[in-house]
Amino acid sequence: MNGIKIVLGVVVVALITFSMSAFIVDERELVIKFRLGEIAETDYKPGIHFQIPIVNNIRKFDKRIQTLDADPERYLTAEKKNVQVDSFVKWRIVDVETFFKSVGGDFWVANQRLSQVVKDGLRGEFGKRSVQEVISGERDEIMAAITASAGIQAKAFGIEVVDVRIKRVDLPQEVSNSVFRRMEAERDRIAKEFRSEGSEAAERIRAEADRQRTVIIAEANQKAEKMRGEGDAKATEIYATAYNKDPEFYAFYRSLGAYEKTFSSQGDLLVLEPDSEFFQYFNGKVTK
């Protein structure tokens, strides 16, 4: 019985010793092993590794890509104008020993150091360009240049700068208001020009329409007068032809028409002598 207890005790001690000696390195981690406070080893592959309890201690660091999202900063352009720049940096640890020695393994300190490096780079790049260039023309070139320069300086911290991105480039509020007012005034000026040109074009169109209307009416009146004259001439010709064929019948027909127009209403009154020529077809007398 005592032998079993001794065996169990040995097993328990062995398990405790193993648990204190073994450590696991994840593929997302970088590890530093210290020996009495001094760096002993850093090159660990993912898997199970061992240490000497009390003599050694382990510290792990995340080797995945980190994001430094800095607060917006103001920078001067080549024309000495302020612009507000919002940017972020992607970085990761590539040399864990240098990272620990330079910033004490503190990610906050690393972000502060890297932020200063990027700000200096942005200040230099923006100082060489105009507002127009930094807003629209050369943003990609600026980001590439800062990524390269910051990457060189970040090696001193054991860091690799993966990318530097500019999210926004804005003018300060007071400058934005001034620019907006200038833009508004320019748009008003353009609108007035368009309205003026439109009014001028409308007047030209109306004048041309009036001219065409006058021409069309004149041509129509001319054609109408011509057709009316031709009609009158034709009517006169027809009357003359009819008269020549039978003058007596033509005279009688014309008299009937005159009677119809004269006595078209019951209230019509005409004072004439009974033997006047107007009533020649009423009394049977016909003048030739």
Could you give the topology of this structure?
Layout: H1 2-21, E1 22-25, E2 29-35, E3 38-41, E4 47-50, E5 56-62, E6 66-69, E7 73-76, E8 82-93, H2 96-103, H3 107-127, H4 131-137, H5 139-154, E9 159-170, H6 173-245, H7 247-262
Antiparallel strand pairs: 1-4, 2-3, 2-5, 6-8, 7-8, 8-9
How would you describe this protein?
It is a single chain. With 288 residues, this protein is α+β, with helices and mostly antiparallel strands. Among the domains are: 2-62, no CATH class; 66-171, 2-Layer Sandwich (Tetrahydropterin Synthase, Chain A), CATH 3.30.479. Helix content is 56%, strand content 20%. The protein is built from seven helices and nine strands. The protein has helices spanning 2-21, 96-103, 107-127, 131-137, 139-154, 173-245, 247-262; strands spanning 22-25, 29-35, 38-41, 47-50, 56-62, 66-69, 73-76, 82-93, 159-170. The strands form three sheets. Strands 6, 7, 8 and 9 form a four-stranded antiparallel β-sheet that branches. Strand 2 (29-35) and strand 3 (38-41) form a beta hairpin. Helix 3 (107-127) packs across helix 5 (139-154) and helix 6 crosses helix 7 (247-262). The longest helix is centred in the last third of the chain and has 73 residues, at 173-245. HflC and HflK could regulate a protease. This is Protein HflC. Keywords: Hydrolase, Membrane, Protease, Transmembrane, Transmembrane helix. Pfam families: Band_7 (PF01145).
Question: Helical proportion?
Answer: 55-70%
How many strands?
9
What global shape is seen?
rod-shaped
Number of continuous helical runs: 7
What gap, in angstroms, lies between the N and C termini? 177 Å
**Overall mean pLDDT score?**
78
CATH homologous superfamily caption of the domain at 66-171: Band 7 domain
CATH domain class of the domain at 66-171: Alpha Beta
Global Rg: 56 Å
The secondary-structure element order is HEEEEEEEEHHHHEHH
Secondary structure category:
alpha+beta
Low-pLDDT segments: none
Largest sheet: 4 strands, antiparallel
* Fold-level CATH name of the domain at 66-171: Tetrahydropterin Synthase, Chain A
Q: How big a fraction of the residues is strand?
A: 15-25%
CATH architecture of the domain at 66-171: 2-Layer Sandwich
